Amino acid sequence: MTTDIKKEIIRLLQEDQEFRYTVAGLIGLEEVLKRLDRHEQRMSELLEEQRNIRQEQTKIWEEIKKLRENQENLWEEVRALHEGQNRLWEEVRALREGQNKLFEGYGRLEKALEGLVSVQKNLARQVGALSDTIFIHRLRKKGRKEE
User: Fold this and answer.
1) Cβ atoms within 10 A of the Cβ of 55, count?
2) How would you class 70 by CB atoms within 10 Å of its CB: exposed for 0-12, middle for 13-18, buried for 19 or more?
3) Structurally, how many domains does the chain consist of?
């Protein structure tokens, strides 16, 4: 194509509207515009879908936040339970110490009781011997009176 023909085509495209539309139709501009319309429609649909996804994502983040808060509450409860358990173990230790002291005291009481039983037996023997002595003494005294 010569330069003159190119210049003439360009001039006609700039100045002659009918020529411009005819050329546009020939090169498929109408099809291009229809495609652009379809792309614009699809773009609008995608933007709407993206808005919906963002809304869902916002809900998910809110749920995650609630889950984290609940998890933190659970950890606080676990810490409180752990502290309570530690206090219980301290009480158990104190009870064991008290029980051991009671056992020691019981052992001392048992030894003291054994000592008292021994003293009582000794006293019983002494009282028995004293009773025998008194009895013999009375018999002798009575025997002297009968003579």
Assistant:
1) 10
2) exposed
3) 1
